[in-house]
Amino acid sequence: MYGEFLRYEGYSTLILYMLLFLAARKASLSSLKHFPYVLLSASGVALYGIFQHYGLDPFPRDIIRMGWQVAFSTMGNQNFLGTFLVLMLPLSLHYFLTQKKWLGLVSYGILFYCLLASRTNSALVGIVLALAAYFLLVRLWRLKGLFIKNRLLSVIGLSLCLLVLFNLQTGNSTFFEIKQMKMDLDAMMQKSEGYEHAGSNRMFIWVRVLELVKARPLFGYGIENLGHVMEREYHQDIIDFWGTTAYVDKTHNEYLHTAFSAGVPALLAYLIFIGLVLKQGLKSAKVRPDLLPIFAAIVGYLGQAFFNISVVCVAYVFWIFLGLISQTTLSQTKK
C-alpha cells in the first residue's frame, strides 16, 4: 500500500513540475527587481544551516539527524541543501556584479559559506560548473559591464577568505574532500580494488542499477520501485558490501534514476527536452542578461544531478528556472 502511495505521489509531482514550468514560461520577469526577495529568502535558509554547523540549532532533531555535524537547514539533508545553494549562488553573484548592491555580496558570502558547511561534494562540482558557464558566456558575449574589476576582486577575495576560515576551523576539510574526489575518480576509471566504495558507495549502486536498466531498457521498473528491486536481485551483494541489510531506494544519479524508473526512451526524451530548453535559454540570456545567472544555475544543477536525486524541496526551483529561460517572447531590457 505504501509503495502504491509513493508511486501516485511521484506521478502527481511530475505533473506539478510541468505546471510550474509552463507557468514560469508565461511569467513576466522584469529585470532584476525580484532578485532581492529571492536572495533574502535564500540567505535565511543558509544562515540557519550555518548556525547548525556551529551547533546552534534551536529546533529539536529526530533520531536520524541527532549527531549530524553538517548544515542541512530546512531541507533535512545536506545534499538537498547543497543543490539549493547551487541554484541560488549565481543569482547573488550576478546581482552584486551588475547592481553594485551590497545585498548581493553579503548574500553571496552567506550562501557560499553555507555550501562549504554542507560538506557536499556534488554541490562543489555543481557550483564550479555554474560559475564556469556564467563567466564563459560573459566573456563570449563580451558583456563588459560584468567585468568591473573592483567588484570581481571583492567576490574573489571574499571567497578565498571564507574558504580559508572554514578550512582552519574544520581541519582542512574542503581540500581533503577535493582530494578524495580525485582519488574516487581515479579508482572508478581504473576499476581498482575497492572502486565500488567510490563516491560514498555510489559506485556500488550505479553498477547494479545499470545492469537492471539493461534488463528492462524500454519501460523500466516504475516510480519508487528501486528499493524492492535491489532487495530482490542483490540482497546478498548488499549484505556482503555493507555487512548488514540496507534498503537502497535511490540511485544518487538523477539520469540513471530516470532510466531505471521509466526506461531509456524516457531518459532520452528528458535529455532532449533539457537540450531544447538550454538552446532557447542561450538565446534568451543573450537578449536578457538578467537571465544569465538563471541559465548558469541550471547548468550547475544538471552537473550535480550526476551524484544526487531530484527532491521536491529543491526541484520546483529548477523547473521554474527552466520555464523562465525558455521564454520565446523576450524583449531587450532597458539598462
Task: Provide a descriptive summary of the structure in words.
There is one protein chain. The termini are far apart. The chain has helices at about 1-25, 35-55, 80-100, 100-120, 120-140, 150-170, 175-190, 200-215, 225-240, 255-260, 265-285, 290-305, 310-325. It is mostly helical and about 325 residues long. It is globular and about 60 Å long.
Task: Annotate the secondary structure layout.
Blueprint: H1 2-26, H2 35-53, H3 78-99, H4 102-118, H5 121-140, H6 149-169, H7 173-190, H8 198-215, H9 226-242, H10 254-262, H11 264-287, H12 292-304, H13 312-325
Helix pairs in contact: 1-13, 2-3, 2-4, 3-4, 3-5, 3-12, 3-13, 4-6, 5-12, 8-10, 10-11, 11-13, 12-13
- Determine the number of helices (DSSP H or I, runs of at least 4 residues): 13
Strand content: under 5%
Over all CA atoms, what is the radius of gyration? 21 Å
User: Runs with pLDDT <50, length 5+?
Assistant: 1-9, 331-335
**Alpha carbon gap, first and last residue:** 56 Å
Q: What is the total tally of β strands?
A: 0
Largest sheet: none
- Indicate the structural class: mainly alpha
Residues in helices, as a percent range: over 70%
Mean pLDDT: 86
- Write down the overall geometry: globular
